[in-house]
Amino acid sequence: MAIMKCPQCGKSISDKQQVCPHCELDMTNLTEEKIHSLSKIKSLKYNQSLQTHQFIATLLFLAGCFSYYNIEDKASPQFVAAQASILVGFIWYVVNRFRIIWAKRSLKK
Ligand SMILES: [Zn+2]
């Protein structure tokens, strides 16, 4: 018995299993082509979620910047929150940028 990865959900399963216990993919009639298209779909979905992350990070960053310049009282908790969201948004964006580059690299293989 060997452990392999399900081509649809990517979770570890036994190669003796007929149906994936995680996503219920039928393993009995998988062709090379089907496995390939499933992994394509999976990386597309992953890319889509990265794009969503990127969008939220940008929004957080911009909202932080907007608040930063519009809050008069620099000692208020709102001002601290604005700084925090700039920082978090920026770090999130940069980290996500690397994840996108990484995902594109592994897609080309
Ligand atoms: Zn699965």
From TrEMBL:
Entry-linked InterPro entries: Znf_ribbon
Domain Putative zinc-ribbon stretches: 5-27
Keywords assigned: Membrane, Transmembrane, Transmembrane helix
Residues annotated as transmembrane: 50-69, 75-95
Pfam family, one: Zn_ribbon_3
Protein name: Putative zinc-ribbon domain-containing protein
Lineage: Bacteria, Pseudomonadati, Pseudomonadota, Gammaproteobacteria, Alteromonadales
